[in-house]
Amino acid sequence: MDPHAQVLLLPGWQNSGAAHWQSRWEARYGYQRVEQHDWMQPLRGDWISRLEDVLLAQSRPSVLVAHSLGCLLVAAWASVSRNTHLVCGALLVAPGDAERPELRAPLHSWSPVVMQCLPFASVLVGSHNDPYCSLARAQSMASAWGAQWHDLGDAGHINAESGLGDWPHGHALLQTLMQTTHHE
C-alpha cells in the first residue's frame, strides 16, 4: 500500500461526535472526514455518490476508515464503482447490521447488506456485545468481504461510549494495514 495514501474517515449514521475515535483521529492526524449531505436519514445511493466524488477528487490512493454504517457504505460502493482502484485498503470497525428489525425502517435503503468480496485489503474489527450487530453477523460480514477478522472482545459499538479515547490500538491496526499491503 502506498505509505502516502490519503486516509478517509467514513462515519456511520448520525456522524461521529467530538469524543468518537474517528473525530479524535481527524484532529490528531489530519485525516479527512467524508461529509455526507444527510447524516440523519442516510440513503445508500446518496452516500455512495458522495464517496465516489471524494475519491475522484483525491490526488493519491486512499485508505478508508469506516465505522458502523460506514462499513456498509464501503461494501455497497465497492460493488458498484468502476473506481475501486482508487482505494488500497479499508479498516472496517463495528459494522451496523441494517437488516436487524429495529434498523430496517430508519436504514431502509441499506437492505440487503452487500455481501461480496472487497477488491482491496481490509480488516474488520468486531465486538462481542455490539448492540447494532451480533458477533456471528460481524464475522459473516468479514468472511463475505474477504476481510481479516480482528476480535476486540466486549467493546460495545466501538464508539465514544466504549471509552476508547484516541484508540491507539485501532490506529496501530491502521498503520499495520497500510504497511503490509500494497497498492495494485
Molecular structure report:
There is one protein chain. This protein is α/β, with parallel strands linked by helices. It has a single domain (about 5-180), classed as Rossmann fold (3-Layer(aba) Sandwich). It is built from 6 helices and 6 strands; from the N terminus they run βαβαβαβαβαβα. It has helices spanning about 20-30, 45-55, 70-80, 100-105, 135-145, 170-180; strands spanning about 5-10, 30-35, 60-65, 85-95, 120-125, 150. A 6-stranded parallel β-sheet has the order 2-1-3-4-5-6, with helices on both faces.
Summarize the helices and strands and which ones pair or pack:
Blueprint: E1 6-10, H1 21-29, E2 32-33, H2 44-57, E3 62-67, H3 69-80, E4 87-93, H4 101-104, E5 121-126, H5 135-145, E6 148-151, H6 168-180
How would you briefly describe this protein structure?
The protein is an alpha/beta fold and 184 residues long. It has 6 helices and 6 strands; from the N terminus they run E-H-E-H-E-H-E-H-E-H-E-H. The protein is globular.
Structural key phrases:
single chain, 184 residues, alpha/beta, Rossmann fold, 6 helices, 34% helix
Q: How many individual domains?
A: 1
Question: Strand fraction band?
Answer: 15-25%
**CATH T-level fold name:** Rossmann fold
Our measurement of the CA-to-CA distance between the termini, rounded to an integer number of angstroms, reads 8 Å
The rounded Rg comes to: 15 Å
Return the CATH class.
Alpha Beta
**From N to C, what is the helix and strand string?**
EHEHEHEHEHEH
Query: How would a textbook summarize the main sheet?
Result: 6 strands, parallel
